[in-house]
Specification:
Helix content is 38%, strand content 17%. By secondary structure, the protein is α+β, with helices and mostly antiparallel strands.
């Protein structure tokens, strides 16, 4: 769910096409959304300057171009080059690749749920409480019992970006679902 007024920066929803602007056309990832809304303030505070200072704007745009746009592109599957030729090598040691390896393949969950539906097999699934995902209705339909696991309050980063109060604790819940 993308609701900047509520500090919700999820870009995984149908029809989402938010871009950074300023001449950039790469669709934003969650990192890009956070940077778009808070990057100027972060740069200004780091430099001890006003957010309206031209130097802040220049650095804000340079950091997006040289770092954040790459994260956005990789996270959204945007090819780095305009060509149909296969890549001559694989580059998977960048920040986005490293973070991506930590994330479960949520896009596979629809397939897993379909297999469980067709086979009638029983399973336990541990998933994020994420109602905006396309697999959520199927999960609820197949679930015979479930419970929520709440995060420990001290697992959140200090400040407004990671606080329970800003993000809303349901966003951080994990649901354990019994299927079948």
């Amino acid at each position: 769910m993308y609701e900047p007024e509520n500090n919700k920066f999820d870009h995984h929803q149908r029809g989402f096409d938010e871009i950074f602007g300023h001449g950039f056309v790469t669709k934003l990832s969650s990192a890009g959304l956070v940077y778009k809304h808070f990057g100027r303030e972060i740069v200004a505070n780091t430099l001890g300057l006003s957010s309206s200072d031209p130097i802040v704007e220049k650095i804000y745009l340079k950091v997006y171009k040289s770092f954040v746009e790459g994260v956005d592109g990789i996270d959204n599957g945007v090819d780095m080059y305009d060509t149909d030729a296969p890549a001559k090598y694989s580059e998977n040691t960048n920040l986005s690749a490293r973070v991506g390896k930590l994330n479960p393949p949520w896009d596979e969950l629809s397939r897993v749920l379909q297999t469980l539906r067709e086979s009638g097999a029983a399973a336990y699934l541990v998933v994020p409480e994420w109602p905006s995902q396309p697999w959520w209705p199927d999960l609820l339909e197949l679930t015979t019992d479930s419970f929520l696991v709440a995060p420990a309050r001290d697992n959140f980063l200090p400040g407004h970006l990671g606080s329970v109060e800003a993000m809303g604790s349901p966003f951080w819940y994990t649901r354990v679902c019994k299927i079948g």
